[in-house]
Amino acid sequence: MAQLNPGDKAPRFRGIDQYGNPVSLEDFKGKNLILYFYPKDDTPGCTAEACNFRDNYAPLTRKGYEVVGVSVDSTQSHQKFREKYNLPFTLIADEDKKIVEDYGVWGEKNMFGRKYMGTNRVTFVIDGEGIIKHVIRRVDSKNATQQILDLETNP
Q: How much is the pLDDT for 155?
């Protein structure tokens, strides 16, 4: 799939949350959605990012945002991760990799000279009509919320 950019229609998705409940893009119609993709539950960068969204969740919801994280981990992994760090938002288990592929975030990665396929850390801000407003490809895990707020005030 071609790379998604601001102004593009967000790909529709249907996934399963940490408790096995269905979640779809349509559930967020009329709301601003922060859809963030991350590599793996309970790893340092992913935990920092999730906790940053957790610590700023109230201000984000007051500004009309919903937060949803997506990785290819299982529902059980998501449930443990969510409970361990008291995350107040939904995590989608994309075990069949359909959502990560539709959003163009599944790709080749390189760690310590070893190449492998995985989820790239990318955040999409989607408006209430399902249009992508912002795409953050260089996510600062410890300041993910501020990156979004900065884009909203200085597009």
A: 59
User: 99 lies in a domain?
Assistant: yes
Q: Residues 46, 60, 105, 125: which is the catalytic one? A: 46
Q: Residue 28's domain is classified under what CATH number?
A: 3.40.30.10
66 contact partners, CB below 8 Å, separation of at least 6? 28, 31, 32, 33, 34, 89
**Has residue 20 been placed in a domain?**
yes
**Both tokens of residue 12?**
């529709």
46 is catalytic: yes
Query: Consecutive sets of 10 residues in the chain, 155 residues long: mean pLDDT of each?
Result: 88 96 96 96 95 96 95 96 97 97 90 86 96 95 92 72
Q: Coil, helix or strand for 19? A: coil
pLDDT value for 113: 84
122 part of a folded domain: yes
State the pairing for strand pair 90-93/65-71. Answer: parallel
| Residue 30 structural domain | 14-153
Overall domain count for the chain: 1
Task: Please name the residues in contact with 22: beta carbons below 8 A apart, sequence gap of 6 or more.
Answer: 14, 15, 16
